[in-house]
Amino acid sequence: MSRERRFAAVEDLGPLAREAFSTRLERVERLRGGTKKGVYRLTFERGPSAVLYVWADTENFWGPGAEKSEMGLFLAAHREFSELGVRVPELRFADGSGRLYPGEVAVVEDVRGGTLEQRLGSDDGGLERLAEHLQRMAGHRSAGLGEVGPVKAGEGRRTTCPEVVLGWALKDLGEAAGRVEAIGHKRAAFEELLRGMAGGVEPRTEHSLIHGELGPDHVLMDDGGEPVLIDIEGAQFFDVEWEHVFLRIRFGEHYPRLRVEGLDEGRMRFYRLAQHLSLVAGPLRLLDGDFPDREAMMGIVRRHIGEALSFVRGPCVGGDLRIGRLPG
C-alpha cells in the first residue's frame, strides 16, 4: 500500500508559532524521526530554534488509528524522566486539541550536539553519563506494569512481564513464520522454546523505568556533553532486562560500559529471542506500507532472521533468508 503524504509546511504552522512563541515562523525542516510521528526543526524570526513533534495519521507509517494518545504517553514519560533527573529535551509547548494543527503537537528544545551514535568510540564520557542515567532508571521502580501514564493513573497491565513478552513473541512468530520460509519451517520449535523460556522466568512484583527502544540514535548530546533521551513515548515500567537486551543489540561492543548489576541471564535470553522475532515481524509489517527507507529496514530483517534461527539450530546460511511476499 502506498499513498500520497503531505507533511507540515510553514503556512500550516503559523498559528502554532504565534500562540506558542509570539513570533513569526521563518523555516520548517523535516528531520529524520520515528515511524509514528513527524519531527521538524522550526526556525523563527526571533529567538532560538525549536523541534516540533507531530502525531497525526499523515505522519504514522504504521497506519491510522492509534489506540492511545501518543502525546499523552510522551508527556507522562517526559515528566517521569525529568523528575528522576534523566535529561530529556525541555518541553516548550503542547496541544492535543487539533485547534492549531490537525494532530497532536509538542514543541521541545532543539538539542544540536548530534547523536551519541556519532560519538561512539570517542573518549568524551557520553557513555559513562548514559550509564549513570540507566542506573538511576533501573533503581526507579513501581509495582505497576506498563506505560508510564497508565501506571501513574493506576491503570497498569494486570499481568506479568513474562506473560506480556510471550504474547508479543507468539504474535511476532506467527507473522514472521508466514513471511520467512526458514522461520516457518521451525515455527513449532520456536513456540516450544518460547513457552519453555517463559515458564522458567519468575514474575517480579516491582518493575523498573525503561526507555524501551534506547539505541545510540535515540540519545542526543547537549552543549555540555550530557546525553539527552528522545523518542520517549514507549517508556514504561517493565523488567529492566528488556531494556538491556535492546541496548546490547544496538550498542554492540560498547554495551559492557552500560550494563547494570543484577540482570537475570535466563530472562535476558528469553527477551533476546522475543526481540529478534519482533525485529523481523515489525519491519516487514512497516514495509507493507509506504515507509521510505526500505533497504535499511530490510537489512534489519535479514540480520534478525539469522539471530532468531540461531536459537533453534546453528547460525543460518544463505538459503534460509528467503522471504515470501517481499514488500515492494
What can you tell me about this protein's structure?
The chain is globular, with a radius of gyration of 20 Å. The chain has helices at 10-21, 70-84, 126-139, 148-152, 161-177, 181-185, 187-199, 240-251, 265-287, 294-309, and strands spanning 25-31, 38-44, 50-55, 91-95, 104-109, 141-142, 146-147, 207-210, 219-221, 227-229, 236-238. It has ten helices and eleven strands. By secondary structure, it is an alpha+beta fold. Helix 5 (161-177) packs antiparallel against helix 7 and helix 5 (161-177) crosses helix 9 (265-287). The chain folds into two domains: 10-109, Phosphorylase Kinase, domain 1; 116-321, Aminoglycoside 3'-phosphotransferase, Chain: A, domain 2, CATH 3.90.1200. This is Phosphotransferase. It comes from Nonomuraea salmonea.
Descriptive tags:
single chain; 328 residues; alpha+beta; Phosphorylase Kinase, domain 1; Aminoglycoside 3'-phosphotransferase, Chain: A, domain 2; 2 domains; five-stranded antiparallel sheet; four-stranded antiparallel sheet; 15% strand; globular
